[in-house]
Amino acid sequence: MGLDDKVQNAAQDMAGKAKEAVGKGTDDERLEAEGQADQTKANLKKAGENVKDAFK
Questions:
Q1: What is residue 40's predicted lDDT score, i.e. its pLDDT?
Q2: 10-14 contacts at long range (C-beta below 8 A, 24 or more positions apart)
Q3: Which string of DSSP letters, residue by residue, matches 8-56?
Q4: Which residues neighbour 21 within 8 Å (Cβ) at sequence distance 6 or greater?
Q5: 12: which of 3, 30, 42, 54 fits an S-S bond (Cβ 3.0–4.6 Å)?
Q6: Minimal CA–CA distance to 20: which of 12, 2, 8, 56?
Q7: Residue 5 in contact with residue 49, Cβ under 8 Å?
Q8: 15 burial class (0-12, 13-18, 19+ CB within 10 angstroms)?
Q9: For residues 43 and 47, what is the distance between their CA atoms, to the nearest angstrom?
Q10: How far apart are alpha carbons 49 and 45 in whole angstroms?
Q11: Is 3 helix (H, G, I), strand (E, B) or coil?
């Protein structure tokens, strides 16, 4: 897993957490769900990269 990938995944996760927090604060369920989805995508990418690293 390259450093760029780690940084991008972390940024996507942080952005998702921010969206989720704003969604909760404003009672915007759509924004909250988007934030959760972004976090899930980041976690899946991280898991995929970890699998790749395990086979190297």
A1: 96
A2: 10/42, 12/38, 12/39, 12/41, 12/42, 12/45, 13/38, 13/39, 13/42, 13/43
A3: HHHHHHHHHHHHHHHHHHHT-HHHHHHHHHHHHHHHHHHHHHHHHHHT-
A4: 35
A5: 42
A6: 12
A7: yes
A8: middle
A9: 6
A10: 6
A11: helix
Tokens of residue 43, six digits: 């976690």
Residue 48 predicted with pLDDT over 60: yes
Please say whether the beta carbons of 19 and 35 come within 8 A. yes
At position 10, the amino acid (one-letter code) is A
For residue 5, pLDDT over 60 is answered with yes
Tokens of 40: 């899930």
**Does the pLDDT value for residue 26 go beyond 70?**
yes
